[in-house]
Amino acid sequence: MTTTSDGVTIRLASPVDAEALAHLHLDVWDDAYTGLMPQQLLDDRRDRVAERIERWREILGSGSEPTYVASGPDGLVGFATAGPGRDNDLDDHGIDLELWALYVRATHWGTGVGYALLQTAIADRAAYVWVLAGNERAIRFYERQGFRLDGTEDEHDEGLHVRMLRAGTR
Question: Which CATH number belongs to the domain containing residue 47 in this structure?
Answer without folding.
Answer: 3.40.630.30
